[in-house]
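Private note to self, pasted from the team thread so I don't lose it. Backbone tokens:
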């Protein structure tokens, strides 16, 4: 029983810390985003994974949640709930939406499987579209911080794992993962219109 006040005190202190990070994030502080992600991503990912049962989709939900956090930090009101409740509510909603949309997509696509190979876009149009896409991606990469751009280019263009990047840069593995994750969140936000059009 003597440990209970200490536990409550630690929980309260954590909530205050996370709330302060969200408020700093609302002012555009990228370091606050990194700290918030490091402190909470396992909880968010674990919840998404339990709902979806698929690691890849859970990763997508994780990115979606922190992208939403970045956009909506200014609207967070601690009087309506703690920071962890705010994050888990977003994660649950995103995961359930993805679960439903996945089922609907499967139902729509199944009848089309037999006709999907009947025609294919012709060469020159594909080349033009690919060129435009490369230009958009390069422009989006240029908007990242140098540290985020470096790890993403090493991972996606160099084919290196997070561990290999950490060893090459002499940085902790967690730092590399955080830079990659935050960079991908910003890329996804920048390229949102392209993804919505189904180009990526």
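Design output:
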């Amino acid at each position: 029983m003597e440990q209970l006040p200490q536990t409550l005190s630690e929980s309260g202190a954590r909530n205050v810390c996370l709330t302060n990070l969200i408020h700093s994030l609302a002012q555009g502080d990228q370091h606050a985003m990194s700290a918030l992600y490091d402190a909470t991503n396992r909880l968010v990912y674990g919840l998404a994974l339990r709902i979806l049962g698929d690691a890849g989709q859970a990763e997508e939900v994780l990115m979606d949640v922190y992208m939403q956090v970045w956009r909506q930090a200014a609207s967070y009101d601690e009087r309506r709930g703690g920071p962890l409740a705010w994050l888990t509510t977003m994660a649950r909603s995103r995961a359930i939406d993805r679960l439903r949309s996945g089922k609907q997509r499967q139902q729509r696509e199944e009848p089309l499987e037999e006709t999907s190979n009947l025609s294919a876009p012709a060469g020159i149009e594909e080349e033009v579209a690919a060129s435009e896409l490369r230009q958009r991606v390069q422009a989006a990469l240029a908007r990242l911080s140098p540290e985020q751009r470096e790890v993403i280019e090493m991972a996606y263009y160099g084919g290196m794992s997070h561990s290999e990047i950490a060893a090459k840069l002499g940085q902790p593995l967690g730092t590399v993962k955080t830079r990659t994750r935050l960079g991908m969140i910003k890329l996804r936000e920048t390229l949102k219109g392209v993804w919505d059009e189904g180009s990526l």
